[in-house]
Amino acid sequence: MSVFFFGMGYSSQATAKAIRKIIDENIDIFGTTRSRIRADKLARDQIRSHAFDGRAPGLMLAVDLLKSTHVIASIPPSRETDPVLVHHHQELDRAKDLQWLAYFSSVGVYANSDGAWIDEDAELAQVEQRAIDRIKVEESWRAYANKRGVPLAIFRIAGIYGPGRSTINKLQDGLAHRIIKPGQVFNRVHCADIGRITALAMQNRLEGTFNLTDDEPAPPQDLVTFGAKLLKIDPPKPIPFERAELSDMAKSFYGDNKRVCNAKIKKALGIELLYPTYREGLRAIFEGN
After folding, report:
1. CA nearest neighbour of 218 among 240, 189, 186
2. Which domains, ranges and CATH numbers included, belong to the chain?
3. pLDDT confidence of residue 142
4. Dihedrals φ, ψ of 189, to 5°?
5. Which residues contact 52 (CB under 8 A, 6 or more apart)?
């Protein structure tokens, strides 16, 4: 068994760690990166990395990809296409021992539900280009997996947080904002849960489309208040949404209000989350776990 990650970013690194903890600590793991600094870190973690920026084929990765049994794609779409399938379709075809595929998608594929609960059968977004791109790429991976006869798991992932990337860190750096939009909620998921669930899905060759979120969608300002309480500092002053200085991208996120259900993945694997809500997740980060 060996695993190839296209896009060895934050979630992929958490997944590689979980694979070695749950399945085999000596498993061969390969991955792509655009960063020389990250390549050095991956080498220290015994992950062989290859340069791939998604705009042209990775020149040196074919040997490791061809011998990989499991492939996980975690690279954002480019104009309704997936860089992996565009540039490395032929190598995937030639990977004779390929047993399982996974694609890290986003809960952003769903249409706004005005705060209602939704599951994997919910209406998909038809307006935002980034959602349309994701939907098209999901379809491309399903078509490829069907052609190859290899099981594919698509994980629609909520807002990702974890050590170094959390409300705790933003508060410590003075970058946290407490923006108030009544009735607004978001799902999120701790990187350790992404890693664990993907590793277990890989172990079981799980097939299908699954939401990967926490159990409790919550207003973003609640995380800031809770994090400030842990740090024993005053939270930032509240800012009404109408007065908040936000990028167009951030504003579009606030226009998307839904509660995303994770029951399907928990039932499929027979598990509960390590960090079912932001409270457990932020407390673990605060305590250094």
Report:
1. 186
2. 2-162+188-216+258-274 (3.40.50.720)
3. 98
4. -155, 140
5. 6, 32, 33, 34, 58, 61, 83, 87
- Band of pLDDT at residue 78, cut at 50, 70 and 90: confident
CA angle 220, 106, 176 (to 5 degrees): 25
| Max Cα-Cα span within the chain | 58
**pTM for this entry:** 0.96
pLDDT at 116 over 80: yes
Please say whether the beta carbons of 55 and 65 come within 8 A.
Answer: no
| Token pair for 221 | 């300002």
Tokens (6 digits) for 183: 């009735």
Q: Is the pLDDT of residue 118 over 80?
A: yes
Contact 30, 49 (CB under 8 A): yes
Average pLDDT score over residue span 59-68: 94
